[in-house]
Amino acid sequence: MGLLSKKDSGLILDPLADNNPITIQVLGICSALAITAELKASIVMAVSVMFVLGMGNVVISLMRNIIPSKIRIIVQLVVVAALVIIVDQVLKAFAYELSKTLSVFVGLIITNCIIMGRFEAFALANGPWRSFLDGIGNSLGYGLILIIIGFFRELLGSGTLLGFKVLGDPIAKTGLYALGYENNGFMLLSPMALIVVGIIIWVQRSRNPALVEEN
Amino acid sequence: MSLKNKLHNLKEEYKGKKMAPAFNAIHTFLYAPNETTHSGSHVRGADDLKRTMNTVIMALIPVLLFSMFNAGYQHFAAIDAANGVVREVSVFGNFLTWENFWIGIIKVLPLVVVSYGVGLIVEFIFAVIKGHEVEEGYLVTGMLVPLIVPIDTPLWMLSIAVIFGVVIGKEVFGGTGMNILNPALTIRAFLFFAYPTWMSGDKVWVYDAVNLAGTPDAISGETILGYLAQNKAAEMTYSISDMFFGFIPGSVGETSTFLILLGGLFLIFSKIASWRIMLSAVLGALVMGLMFNGVVSSGWIGETSKFYGLMSFTFWKHLIVGGLAFGIVYMATDPVTGSQTNKGKWFYGFFIGFISVMIRVFNPAYPEGVFLAILLMNVFAPTIDHYVIRGNVKKRLKRLKNATILPNDSASKSEKLKAETV
């Protein structure tokens, strides 16, 4: 990449695969299970987290030399809460139905471990540009997994993708449904999302055995 | 050259190749291997894993045959009921007939074939990938699965559920002997949560009831628990002997408590299954049933309550309807997922019976809960064992403390003993 040095592009690319926040660091699982029943909600969640984490990392990074370390968690919480409120208000103003679907989980971005984790581990020790890249990279890694889970859950659970009936109409019995296919209701339940996350982790680690932890 | 020798020769040829485990599985299924242990002295019991599995399958064969006849009988009985014809069951008159058996062949046999076929393919694939021998664990699971699903379950659903159950329920933990959940019940639970309309209601339990629904020929396939859950006990025409011998609608193989009892006695006699688990599970179910009966007779629950039908059901009848007997005898006693300690087995079994009846009464969508109760206790089995073992250690340490130790080299001896007991 011409725009970024090799070290900087690693900040974006590493969290996508070998240092993924969900499958490797096992952070942010709660929201990955709760809001991924529809692909659209997954995408909106991914974008929201990208905004909060990218902006938050920059803000914390700029303030890193003036935050007293004893109260840094509170300062971080204030920053992330302010950003989350912006996201929440924007969603309520422009995508009301979707903000209903996401319900409390937008607010709960505040407690998403990935965000506090990146603030603590990266933004407090690095400059704003690199912190920004790190925030974008980690939220891309988070969003990637969210979208994969959302894709399978919506496709198999409701037979739709982004609301389009890609497998046919279950009531009029067209497409696959004419053959006797039925939607898998288990896919819409959170336990199945956990199993899907598990399968993604399984696939990733069997493709790259270096990721497997020693007992 | 006999077939046996040919197979032995083939085995030598395949040795070290990728397909070897798949071939060995077929080979040792038919014959004992031609190898002997080379080093050391070993005492070998005759009841290896394969023998254990075959014994359980033998105990299931009568249940399977009965279920094939019952599949047809329930179908024709439902048609008679829809036409207002009164039907009395007679074993040789209208039960053991070719007509009934034929429906068993076209409906029950495909379930068995699909369950074994898909399950064994998954097992073979995993054996080849991992390079170990094919495990025998699926032999019993494959027979249990068709017996615990409704008869009209579409075969593709069963295949998906079997793949899920074997992979997620068993192989990810490391295969037979390592699984924490009973694979057959994992498959049942997957079907229940994924396709609830095919697993509950009053249509799926009798052959063809789904297809005929809404037509003038519509037939009902309501189970006894279904009647009770809707407070319609008066409409039910089944006698106690019908319930006990199994001439009732239900999952394919769960209806005949009589044959399940015989199978259970056979398993206890051959020391395959634990009598402690079976007995304590029966006790647990009776205790919970008695408590519910007590609640009704003390007047806390009126006839208008939606729980009245199931709560007022005489406590011991819970054992002869639904899947409780089948679950207790063939599922709860799974040696891998159940408790291992004798004292633990009592707790484990008791709670299976207790929770089964509790879920059966309180589950709003589906008046049965045996599979949920067993899966729940599967999860708790290691915890139960842990506390039983800790309790034993504590007891023995106390004994050690109170023991009079001879004055000679007492310090080192007591330390040694402590190390052994903990």
Automatic annotation (TrEMBL), chain A:
Gene Ontology, cellular component aspect: endomembrane system; plasma membrane
Keywords associated with the record: Cell inner membrane, Cell membrane, Ion transport, Membrane, NAD, Sodium, Sodium transport, Translocase, Transmembrane, Transmembrane helix, Transport, Ubiquinone
One Gene Ontology MF term: oxidoreductase activity, acting on NAD(P)H, quinone or similar compound as acceptor
Biological processes, Gene Ontology terms: sodium ion transport
Major place of residence: membrane
Subcellular location: Cell membrane; Endomembrane system
TM segment ranges: 41-62, 74-95, 101-119, 140-164, 184-203
Membrane topology: Multi-pass membrane protein
Catalytic activity: a ubiquinone + n Na(+)(in) + NADH + H(+) = a ubiquinol + n Na(+)(out) + NAD(+)
Record Pfam families: Rnf-Nqr (PF02508)
Enzyme class of the recorded protein, top EC level: translocase
Entry EC number(s): 7.2.1.1
Family: Belongs to the NqrDE/RnfAE family.
Alphabetized PANTHER family for the sequence: ELECTRON TRANSPORT COMPLEX PROTEIN RNFE, NA(+)-TRANSLOCATING NADH-QUINONE REDUCTASE SUBUNIT D
Subunit structure: Composed of six subunits; NqrA, NqrB, NqrC, NqrD, NqrE and NqrF.
Database matches in NCBIfam families: nqrD, PRK09292.1
Reported function: NQR complex catalyzes the reduction of ubiquinone-1 to ubiquinol by two successive reactions, coupled with the transport of Na(+) ions from the cytoplasm to the periplasm. NqrA to NqrE are probably involved in the second step, the conversion of ubisemiquinone to ubiquinol.
Protein name (database record): Na(+)-translocating NADH-quinone reductase subunit D
This protein's encoding gene: nqrD
UniProtKB/TrEMBL annotation, chain B:
InterPro entries named in the record: NqrB, NqrB/RnfD
Protein's UniProt keywords contain Flavoprotein: yes
Keywords: Cell inner membrane, Cell membrane, Flavoprotein, FMN, Ion transport, Membrane, NAD, Phosphoprotein, Sodium, Sodium transport, Translocase, Transmembrane, Transmembrane helix, Transport, Ubiquinone
Matching HAMAP family: NqrB (MF_00426)
Similarity section: Belongs to the NqrB/RnfD family.
Reaction(s) catalysed (UniProt annotation): a ubiquinone + n Na(+)(in) + NADH + H(+) = a ubiquinol + n Na(+)(out) + NAD(+)
Enzyme Commission number: 7.2.1.1
Membrane topology, from the record: Multi-pass membrane protein
Class of this enzyme: translocase
Regions crossing the membrane: 52-69, 108-129, 144-168, 180-198, 244-269, 281-301, 313-333, 345-363, 369-389
Oligomer and partners: Composed of six subunits; NqrA, NqrB, NqrC, NqrD, NqrE and NqrF.
GO molecular function: FMN binding; oxidoreductase activity, acting on NAD(P)H, quinone or similar compound as acceptor
Positions where FMN phosphoryl threonine occurs in the chain: T223
One Pfam family linked to the record: NQR2_RnfD_RnfE
Name of the featured protein: Na(+)-translocating NADH-quinone reductase subunit B
GO cellular component: plasma membrane
Described function: NQR complex catalyzes the reduction of ubiquinone-1 to ubiquinol by two successive reactions, coupled with the transport of Na(+) ions from the cytoplasm to the periplasm. NqrA to NqrE are probably involved in the second step, the conversion of ubisemiquinone to ubiquinol.
The protein's required cofactors: FMN
Classification of source organism: Bacteria, Pseudomonadati, Bacteroidota, Flavobacteriia, Flavobacteriales
Annotated gene: nqrB
One example of a Gene Ontology biological process annotation: sodium ion transport
NCBIfam families per UniProt: nqrB, PRK05349.1
Domain of life per record: Bacteria
Compartments, as annotated in UniProt: Cell membrane
